[in-house]
Design a protein that fits this description.
16% of the residues lie in helices and 22% in strands. The chain contains 2 helices and 9 strands. This is Plastocyanin/azurin family copper-binding protein.
Length: 181
Amino acid sequence: MTSIDPSRRKLLRVTGAALAGGAVAGCSAAPGESSDSGGGSGDGSSGEDGSTGDTPEPTASGDGSSGGEWTETSTVEMTDDLAFEPKKIKVEAGTTVTFENVGNIGHTVTAYEDKIPDGATYFASGDFDSESAASEGYKSDQTGNIPSGESYEVTLETTGTYEYYCIPHKLNGMVGSIKVV
C-alpha cells in the first residue's frame, strides 16, 4: 500500500468536501432532521441576504437548509417531481404564502412543529393545529391533501425561519423553508 503524505491527504479531503458540497447544493438534511442542534430557534440569523442575482453566501447552521439562495416570492409550486419550487423563499412579515399544486398528484403542506419561530402560529393544510394532528388526519382519510390544480394559503406574521414538508413525500425529500423578515 502506498503512503500518502499529510499535506496531500488534506488537499484530497478539502477537494472531496468541496466537490461533495457542490453536488448536493439545494438538498436538505434527512427528512425530519436538521444539521443544527438548535432547530426551531427560528431567529432567522442565517447570515444570508436573500437577494437574487448576487453570489450566495454560505448557509450558516441554524437555518435548517443547505446551500442556495432565498427566493423572494410568495408563491410555492408543488410538483410531480415531489418538490416544493422554490425550496427556500423569503417574505416580509404579514405576507400570505400560496402553495399551488401544479402537478397531477396530491401533496400536503405541513409545518415541522419544532422548526417554526417561537410564538408563531402552527400551520398545515387541512387547518390542523399540530403536526401530530396533521399526520393522523392525513393517515386516516387524507385530510389536508391538496389535489392537482388546487392551492393552500397561510399568512405568516412572526419573523424567523419556518420549515415544512409534504406528509406523503417527506421520505422523498419534499421539504421547504420560509424566511420571514
